[in-house]
């Protein structure tokens, strides 16, 4: 019996006897109203253990044979396909070829192999800015929502659909993103305004569109997906970057035009509103203040950091679980953030301030997670200490 399994990157049309262990990382039904609105296709993105991906398609008549056996996120042993060129205006992966299921295609669930990677592969905002024309390959992107504008419904193949324009921040830059159709339901103002800071958004399988003076992102109906504050490792990795953690983002609020906006760092500052510490001590009201002073002391306290979920809420560790009601009963992925108390002097007055994550990241030149790694390097723990 031949137990050899092929790598996805090796697949070509010059053989039919391919055998692959793959995870279904994305699965969607799609009709093309411009061609044949009655023709339904089931598309998948498959990924192997080397994280190489290929797109697969099941034609309308074969969908009942396979649909009940396929679940997004599960791993399968698949054999016997037709291999064809990967063409089209909206290609979800960059593999040269794609797979077409046949009557004899075999799909067997595999429980002994795990492929934990989500399959997301983010394109940087610098790469997006370098594009000068529409791209046929769809991309994944992650950023912070800094603007939301509802547009009037637009016509699409005889139907009126919703439209929302987003402004998304990543690594010091912003990009416009147009969202159409049912995906707009996630972008309702009331839903977006309930979080303590602006939201992280993951855009999966979006199209890069060239516009005058630059580029923008746009969803493809029934193909693209967006996720708000997803509890995944990629969210934590993005928010823990210095180029993101060193920025402060306000809660989304409605501006005078009725749009949602989030202020980013320098947008907060108004030199005309600078107060001295004496005035701050005399004011009992809550609000935003700008003060000048000298940090004289960083308080030496054990609780200089805390756990946070992707949403920005403080979470509590309890028996290897992270719990907070605002995000659900159990959170799987958390990050560490600064919460450092400092004593600031000015004009003979001293006040204790708490430097939260973005301010402390700027001050120390490293994120809280980087600080933890530095501590582990400088003060390694002797494993014998934990020996029983």
Can you give a write-up of this model?
This protein is mostly beta strands and 388 residues long. The longest helix is centred in the C-terminal third of the chain and has 11 residues, at 368-378. Helices cover 13% and strands 42% of the residues. The chain folds into three domains: 8-109, Nucleic acid-binding proteins (OB fold (Dihydrolipoamide Acetyltransferase, E2P)), CATH 2.40.50.140; 125-253, OB fold (Dihydrolipoamide Acetyltransferase, E2P) (Beta Barrel); 277-378, OB fold (Dihydrolipoamide Acetyltransferase, E2P).
Task: Give me a quick take on this structure.
By secondary structure, this protein is mostly beta strands. Helices cover 13% and strands 42% of the residues.
The proportion of residues forming helix, as a percent range, comes to 10-25%
Helix tally equals 8
Please describe the biggest sheet, giving its number of strands, its sense, and whether it closes into a barrel.
5 strands, mixed, barrel
Radius of gyration over C-alpha positions, nearest whole angstrom: 25 Å
Count of β-strands: 22
Please give the oligomerization state of what you see: single chain
Side by side, the strands of the main sheet go: 1-2-3-5-4
CATH superfamily of the largest domain: Nucleic acid-binding proteins
InterPro entries: NA-bd_OB-fold (IPR012340), RFA1B/D_OB_1st (IPR003871)
Domain Replication protein A 70 kDa DNA-binding subunit B/D first OB fold: 7-108
Protein name: Replication protein A 70 kDa DNA-binding subunit B/D first OB fold domain-containing protein
Organism: Arachis hypogaea
